[in-house]
Amino acid sequence: MGAMKTLHSARFAWLQAHAFALALGLAACAAALPAHALRIKEVAAVQGVRSNQLSGYGLVVGLDGTGDQSTQMPFTAQAMANYLQQMGISLPPGTAAPQLKNVATVVVTAQLPAFAQPGQMIDVAVSSMGNAKSLRGGTLIATPLRGADGEIYALAQGNVVVGGAGASAGGSKVQINHLNAGRIPEGAQVERSVPTPLHDGDTITLGLNAMDFQTARKVAQAINARQGQGTATALDGRTVQVAAPQDPGRRVNFIAELEELQLPDSTPAAKVVINARTGSIVLNQAVTLGPCAIAHGNLSITISSTPIISQPNPLSRGVTVVAQKSDIAIQQEAGNVIQMPPSPQLADVVRALNTLGATPQDLLAILQAIKAAGALNAELEVI
C-alpha cells in the first residue's frame, strides 16, 4: 500500500514538472511573438460608467422533495407564510408548521449594467442558503432585487437552470457538478435606472485598469496627438482627465473615438505571480534573471502500513485482534549546486528554470529565495 502511495506521488510530481515546463515554454513562445498595439479601451475606462451589484432573498418552489428541511430551517416556513399572506391566504391559529419539502430559500444576485433602463432583462444567479439537496427543476417566485441603498432596482422570477445532476438511494450517492446553485438567463426585469454622471461637467476622467505612470502618460499623449494639445492631462498614475464636448451626442462620439486610439508599445513592470494553493507560476515578458548559484535537493517520506492479525488458541475464549504495523522511511537526495547564468529575456529565464528539474511546488520556494538574494529582477506576488 505504501509503495503504491509513493508511486502515485512520483507520477503526480512528474506530471506537475512537465506541465510547468510546457507552460513556461508556451510563455516563452508568446514572448517571442511581436506585440500588438493596445487601444485605450483595453487599458482604461470612463469613471462613473460601472455596473452595480443587486441581491435579494427569495423562494424556489416546485422541487421534487429536495427542498429545505423546515425543522432545521424555520425561516423557510416563515418566508412561505409571509408569501401566502401577501396572496390573501393565512393559516388558522394553532396550525402546525408545514413541512415544505418542495420549497428552498435562496439568495438571488445580479449585476445591473451601466445605462440599464426599465424594462430591460438581466441574468440572475440563484444560490441555496438552507439545507436543500438540489434546486434542479425549481421555479423562483417574484423576488425584488435591491441595491446597496436598499432601493428596488429589478424584479426576478423564472425557472432555475442547474448545470448538474445527482441521484441517491440506499446510502449511495452520485452527483455531477453543483446542484445548490443555478442561473436564470434574462430572469430579472429592470425596474429603475441608476443615474450615471457621464454628461456632468466639461471633462471626463479615464481610470486606468492598473496603476502605471508610463501608461497614463502615453494615454494623454495619444489623445493630445489626435484632439490637440491640452485636451488630456495625466493627473497621476491611474487617472487621465480629458476635456469633452458638452452636447450628449457629441460626447458619446468623442468617447467612442478615444477608446479606439492606439497606444505605442511599452514594456510592463516585471512581475512573477505565484499561486501558493495550486502551484501555478506566471512570468511576464519583462522578467530577467541575474547570475546566481542554486542548490536543490528532494526529500521523500514513505509510510507503509501492514495489518497484523493475532489469532487466539482454540478453546481459549480469546478474541481475534487486528493491529497495524507502520514503517516510516525518509530519503533525501543530494543537491548539486547549479550555476544560473544571466538571463536578459523571458526565454532565457524559462530555459534556466527548466534546467533545475524542480516541481512547481519546489519552484515556489526557489523563486522566493532568488528574489531574496537579489538575482530575480521582478516583483514577486503571491496570491
Automatic annotation (TrEMBL):
Matching InterPro entries: Flag_FlgI (IPR001782)
GO-annotated biological processes: bacterial-type flagellum-dependent cell motility
Organism: Acidovorax delafieldii 2AN
Family per record: Belongs to the FlgI family.
GO CC field: bacterial-type flagellum basal body, distal rod, P ring; outer membrane-bounded periplasmic space
Function: Assembles around the rod to form the L-ring and probably protects the motor/basal body from shearing forces during rotation.
Protein name (database record): Flagellar P-ring protein
One annotated GO molecular function: structural molecule activity
Keyword annotations of the record: Bacterial flagellum, Cell projection, Cilium, Flagellum, Signal
Subcellular location: Bacterial flagellum basal body
Residues annotated as transmembrane: none
NCBIfam families: PRK05303.1
